[in-house]
Design a protein that fits this description.
Blueprint: E1 2-7, E2 12-19, E3 23-31, H1 33-36, H2 44-66, E4 75-81, H3 85-102, E5 106-110, H4 111-128, E6 140-145, E7 150-157, E8 160-166, H5 172-182, H6 189-197, H7 222-234, H8 240-266, E9 270-274, H9 281-293, E10 297-300, H10 303-306, H11 311-322
Helix pairs in contact: 2-3, 4-11, 5-6, 5-7, 5-8, 6-8, 8-9
Length: about 350
């Protein structure tokens, strides 16, 4: 079953063809980073104009790269939320048009839910050659950590999950971007902080680990950002690399600490992480070191599947379509929708 996926939730235009929910035949992403860099963040109007210009060529390239024609497509899926309303509209309507023309099933996909299961795509090639299936990997604790969201969920199967905690203010990625701006680093800030942190001393500055010892599984990064602001005001000649390393370590301590505690609390034997911030080298290093000590399996989405991409949209759509799910043509964008619980 070949699924064409479309993703335009923010500033990347993406289309992909995925076979049977695991085999990525193509995954084309047209990035807008250079377009938005002069503004230090995403400008919604510019983003939607870029999507409108590139959505058709990106879909055509995805089909070409997959060596499929439209007649080979068995279903079409697109992100309907959360994200920028003007951006979501472009991809959602383009996908509806393709599905309607082909008279094929159409499905709207929650962007966050697609992130939740994206690490499994990285495991698909290994599983394909073994006697195991994706369902054998569950249950697990899954962390979505991105620019707009930080969510910790207990996942028992594809489509079945319970939110344990989420950020009460800034998402981790937003904190990275705000601190990068305070330091005068270029957009996007997360990769720059990560790069400079490798040159700094992680123990140089004792930034707070907000809510790390809180009994809940919620997160908070607003106070950490404020702490960096005050530190820079008192220390105008601070070593930028040390600030980056110390700030990053504080974020990673909280993310890893809460995730491991959730695993202990639920008794699961596996952890997964996805979203743009999960590419962070220190975060991956810490999880890779801590999980074996606790006899936990670790599933990390590959770098290309951590950022916004259509492959994860198509992959999740396959499993939903297999269970009889479909969307009405009247489906509208949902810019503020959350992850929800038990989607199947």
């Amino acid at each position: 079953m070949n699924i064409l996926g479309v993703e335009t939730s923010c500033d990347e235009t993406s289309a992909a063809v995925v076979r049977d929910g695991t085999e990525i035949l193509s995954n084309i992403v047209s990035s807008q980073v250079d377009l938005h860099r002069p503004y230090g963040g995403v400008v919604p109007e510019l983003a939607s104009r870029h999507h409108l210009e590139f959505i058709q060529p990106v879909i055509q390239e995805a089909l070409h790269a997959s060596r499929c024609t439209l007649s080979d497509i068995d279903g079409v899926a697109a992100t309907y939320g959360p994200g920028l309303a003007s951006s979501l509209l472009i991809g959602l309507n383009a996908a509806k048009g393709v599905a309607f023309t082909l008279n094929k099933p159409f499905l709207g996909i929650n962007h966050l839910e697609a992130h939740l299961y994206s690490p499994l795509l990285s495991e698909s090639s290994t599983l394909h050659a073994s006697r195991f299936t994706l369902h054998d990997l569950f249950p697990m604790i899954s962390l979505i950590v991105s620019g707009g969201h930080t969510i910790l969920a207990h996942v028992t199967d594809i489509g079945w999950h319970e939110i344990l905690g989420q950020t009460v203010d800034y998402a981790a990625g937003e904190a990275f971007d705000k601190v990068a701006k305070l330091l005068g680093l270029c957009y996007p800030g997360g990769p720059e902080v990560d790069r400079l942190a490798k040159q700094g001393n992680r123990a140089a500055i004792a930034f707070p680990r907000s809510m790390l010892d809180d009994p809940s599984f919620n997160f908070s990064f607003s106070g950490l950002k404020t702490s960096v602001l005050y530190y820079l005001k008192k220390n105008p000649n601070a070593v930028v690399a040390d600030v980056c390393a110390s700030f990053q370590e504080a974020v990673v301590d909280v993310l890893v600490g809460k995730t491991l505690r959730a695993a202990r609390h639920t008794g699961v034997r596996a952890i997964s992480a996805s979203g743009g911030v999960s590419i962070n080298s220190r975060f991956r290093e810490r999880l890779a070191a801590e999980c074996p000590r606790r006899n936990l399996r670790l599933f990390l989405a590959s770098a290309q599947l951590c950022t916004d991409n259509a492959a994860m949209i198509a992959a999740l759509a396959f499993h939903k379509l297999q269970r009889g799910a479909h969307s009405d043509w009247s489906l509208d964008v949902a810019p503020s929708i959350g992850l929800g619980t038990n989607s199947m």
